[in-house]
Amino acid sequence: MKEQIVTWLNRLLIADVFLVFFGFAWFAIAVIGESLNINLGFDIWYKLWQPLFNPAIGILFLGAFATWIINKISDRFSKKETK
């Protein structure tokens, strides 16, 4: 059961990482476009910052910490079983 939870958590985190990378790439391109007075979607990106990209970054960190905590607890229990 634990392996399935960790597997699905890792899949969710991988999808979230791609979303965060996509958001960063879009931001970088849009900022360059703004500096050149070319509309490359900075306004749309800015509207999506609060409802989409900001929580995605939070979920990424939360998932990374949760995976670390699950692995640490699992290691402790496996060490106690081998003693």
Structure description:
The protein has 83 residues and is mostly helical. It has helices at residues 2-35, 42-82. The radius of gyration is 19 Å and the shape is rod-shaped. It starts with a helix and ends with a helix. The mean pLDDT is 92.
Q: Element order, helices and strands?
A: HH
What's the helical proportion of residues? over 70%
Number of helices: 2
Largest sheet: none
Essential attributes:
83 residues; mainly alpha; 2 helices
Write the layout of secondary structure elements.
Blueprint: H1 2-35, H2 42-82
At a glance:
The chain has helices at 2-35, 42-82. It has 83 residues and is mainly alpha-helical. Helix 1 packs antiparallel against helix 2.
